[in-house]
User: Fold this.
Amino acid sequence: MSTPASDMERVKLESRHLRGTIAQSLANPLTGAISEDDNKLLKFHGSYQQDDRDLREERRLQKLEPDYQFMIRARLPGGVLTPTQWLAFDTIADTYANGTLRITTRQTFQLHGVIKQQLKATMTAINASLIDTLAACGDVNRNVVASANPVQSQAHAEAVDWATKLSEHLMPRTGAYHELWLDGEKLADTATEHEPLYGDAYLPRKFKIGLAIPPDNDIDVFSQDLGLIAIIEDRQLTGFNVAVGGGMGATHNDPATYPQLADVIGFVPPEQLLETAWHIVAVQRDFGDRANRKHARLKYTIDDRGLDWFKTELQSRLGFTLAPARDARFTHNGDRYGWMQGENGTWHLTLHIPAGRVADVGKRRLKSGLRAIAEVHAGDLRMTCNQNVIIAGVAPADRDAIDALVAEYGLDSYATATPLRRHAVACVALPTCGMAMAEAERYLPALLDQAEALLGKHGLADAPILLRISGCPNGCPRPYLGEIALVGRALGRYDLRLGADFSGQRLNAVYRENIDEATIVAELDTLFARYAAERQANEGFGDFSVRAQLVTPPARRAVLETTS
Assistant:
């Protein structure tokens, strides 16, 4: 007997291609919320209903409903936007949201604090900047991320252009988005509307694509459902190695859920990329688990049926044969800060944005400073998967002006920040994320201060260590690829994980489970002391953690298959 489909499958099938009753929910003046079913559908339009959890108990005692508000996420393939678009988002944040911008680990903006009555106006303003939010969330292919350094050469720029092509090729075709947010013409009969890739039920779960350019694995390409590794030979883009079945999400105390790294299954030239991606998504559409959403990502489809099965099924749908994968090596994760010159003579400047929060705080006026830069910049701006910003395409004659603004607004922290701080990534977590079990973004500054003091104590201040903190096990900041990672269990309690490598090709493992913040600091003190005394030449902290048998990293899928 087959297992019944999850309730989310009902919602999608009854939604008339993502319309549901969202329009009626928005018009209801009696509540700041929308209905449960519409909330599930709203994700496909790029928005989540949330509430301020700091105020939840106070409002309950006052017999008030939660302080409902909405997060809106943009679809920005490769994280690229013009200065005009940056300025538009800056204004939108002040007009409709909480006055800040949040750069996510998928290279895009999130707006927080939008109330229901202004949700449509906010969406309309975003679209007026020639950016949309469709498919930034939901059971579809989401924002396609790419290495954030395309101006390094023409081949890099060409590779990143494919992120936009993939995003457009795999977009939902429903007219619901334009009808709801842009006053588009309504279809007389939505039953005749057709979703050529997604069908009436869309995907079983979200799908993520990322494009990396070796030797930099700045997007954690093996964490993607579909990872694409650009192969550049003789300064020409020859194609992409194709990796499938990565994913970061897990659930505490459920061993059937786990993070997984993608496996490379072959190589395609650029002209075969869109068809390959389409059919990989289609295989997941047809075979993904629609009964258990915790088991619905592509990684589980592949693990349940086998990588060889997946390759055979994919090959049966393609009009060509995947070529053998080509040699590609990664040596670096994270972003490269400061000024770098591109092949065409222009320069780009990578700035450090702690936890991706673009706000004015004390002498560090990130929001005002980036607005001032956007007002004079002639190139573009690029967000990274590590929550930072690149001022790209700066003419040599304009560098001094950019540097002056960087200094004036306190944007130059990258020059003095320790390697640990530069590489730290955190999700939003409390107070807005409904999934958060513990703090992340708000805890990161204190954690960094304490960890930096310990590193200095042991003579390790210059050690480049990948630190990630997530408020829950869903893994948005890719914690399972951190050399040190905290994954939230409850307020003030985390799993401490160790053992990933610096190039994003090995998962970490639990070292201590469900410990409080004081214990975390004590453990780090002991760990750093051992690292300082026992490390080998040029040995990263994650590699040391494995060699010293502090943790045993989980086996990758390919290893599981060959030993089963």
